[in-house]
Design a protein that fits this description.
476 residues; mainly alpha; single chain; three-stranded mixed sheet; 68% helix
Length: 476
């Protein structure tokens, strides 16, 4: 609308003549409102109607100001009036634009308020529902509170009854303790008398739980396990062809003490012709020494205590009867080595084997450090060493606890002793050469007969000769 008015004014200005010639007076009428415009006005909101009225008023004012311009006015006046009219029209248009923007903003705010109103209505409805739920919950809680009060009253009555019963219980317990003390005293007396009778019975009992033949078979089993392990190591382990010169002196000293001087020297020489057999003999000798010590021990792992107990037993054997001495031996060793704890694991026997065998194998040229050699024996060969340990423990129990009527002992020959065919067996059947013993490959078994009279030496009956390796079998 503003653009149409502006165009009308501009066209009027351009059509006016600047001369003073009389011209017909320009007659402008208010533009009539069309039917479509009226329909638009009727459909507008209150703010839209106000905006339309403002626009119509501005248009009317412009037209009226234009109608005042006549032919008699000078061209300058006409242009001035027209310019003012255009300025007024531009100002009104700016006002209308601002009002339109405000109208849009108000419409948006109105829409936002309607949404908030709807949200508040929903919240109000939710609050009303929650209020009803809370009232119902409060009624239920009151009912439960009443029930709880009744329950508390009932429990209070029960507590009083329990307190009375507890007092009676305390009195009864005091009486029971008195009776238990009397009973315990009577039981201790019975146990003491029973133990005395059992001890007397044990000393009077000479029946063996195992035979001499059982002991011999068990020793043969132990010798066989030692041989199999030594042969397996000698055949399957890889050894350097020369003596390892980097070994510390204490390692060499320990191996020499375990094997003996001559056997240690032969192992160091690394003679290819006899090296594999020499490794086997060294391992057999070392295991016979270790297993024999375990089998003969009165207290495995505590060798000073074992020596003391063995000394006491020898004195009893010399001064008392064989029946009393054998019973004392069986009772003492059974008490030291209880069945629940008398196992190789309990006494770290596998660790003992690995600790002494690892240096022997390193002297033989097994290219492993001390820790690697020990760890390999403890892990990869643990089961084989455990078989030897179990056989040693079983033989310990046979000789020390199960055979009472006689004394059996193992025979281990150290290197350097002269060979005697009456008490030894040559394991390699060397008929010629040196008859000096290098070491023991199989343990022997003897039976001791103690003298009846003092001052007479005990007699030994060889049940199984020990097998030995002679120097002549390897040096000649």
């Amino acid at each position: 609308m503003f653009d149409a008015l502006r165009n009308t004014i501009i066209s009027f200005t351009t059509s006016s003549s600047p001369t003073k010639t009389s011209a017909p007076r320009l007659s402008l009428r208010k533009p009539s409102t069309s039917s479509s415009y009226n329909e638009h006005v009727r459909a507008s909101t209150a703010s839209g109607r106000a905006l339309s009225i403002t626009t119509s008023t501005a248009s009317t004012a412009v037209i009226e100001s234009t109608n005042t311009i006549g032919p008699a006015d000078s061209p300058n006046n006409q242009e001035s009036q027209l310019a003012e009219t255009l300025k007024a029209l531009d100002a009104e248009r700016a006002t209308v634009t601002r009002l339109q923007q405000e109208n849009i903003s108000l419409g948006r705010k109105n829409l936002s308020l309607e949404r908030e109103n709807l949200s508040l209505s929903r919240q109000s409805a939710s609050f009303e529902g929650n209020s009803a739920t809370l009232e119902l919950s409060v009624r239920e809680l009151r009912d439960k509170l009443h029930e709880s009060e009744l329950l508390v009253d009932s429990l209070s009555s029960q507590v009083q009854s329990l307190e009375h019963a507890q007092k009676q219980l305390v009195t009864s317990k005091a009486r029971i303790r008195e009776l238990e003390a009397s009973l315990a005293s009577a039981q201790r007396l019975v146990e003491v008398k029973t133990q005395e009778l059992l001890s007397a019975k044990e000393f009077l009992t000479v029946a063996d739980d195992a035979s001499v033949a059982d002991a011999r078979r068990q020793l043969e089993t132990l010798n066989s396990e030692i041989f199999q392990f030594a042969a397996f190591v000698a055949e399957t382990f890889t050894f350097d062809s020369t003596f390892p010169s980097h070994l510390p002196p204490d390692t060499l000293t320990g191996v020499e003490h375990l094997l003996g001087e001559q056997l240690f020297s032969l192992l160091r020489d690394h003679n290819e012709d006899i090296f594999e057999v020499m490794v086997q003999v060294c391992l057999q000798n070392a295991l016979c020494c270790l297993a024999g010590g375990i089998t003969r021990s009165w207290s495995v792992g505590d060798y000073p205590a074992s020596d003391i107990l063995a000394g006491v037993y020898n004195r009893i054997r010399l001064t008392g009867s064989s029946r009393v001495a054998g019973s004392w031996r069986a009772i003492t060793r059974s008490a030291v080595h209880t069945a629940a704890t008398f196992t190789p694991e309990q006494y770290s026997v596998i660790d003992l084997f690995a600790t002494h065998l690892a240096p022997v194998l390193r002297v033989a040229g097994w290219a492993k450090s001390a820790n690697e050699a020990y760890d390999t024996l403890m892990t990869e060969h643990h089961d084989k060493l455990n078989v030897i340990a179990l056989a040693s423990f079983k033989l310990n129990k046979l000789l020390g606890e199960q055979i009472i009527s006689t004394d059996l002992d193992l025979v281990y020959i150290r290197g350097g002793e002269p060979f005697s065919s009456e008490s030894m067996t040559d394991g390699f059947e060397a008929s010629d050469g040196s008859q000096v013993v290098l070491g023991t490959t199989d343990l022997g078994l003897v039976q001791k007969k103690w003298p009846v009279e003092k001052g007479v030496e005990s007699e030994e009956i060889i049940l199984l000769k020990p097998k030995v390796a002679l120097a002549g079998s390897f040096l000649d």
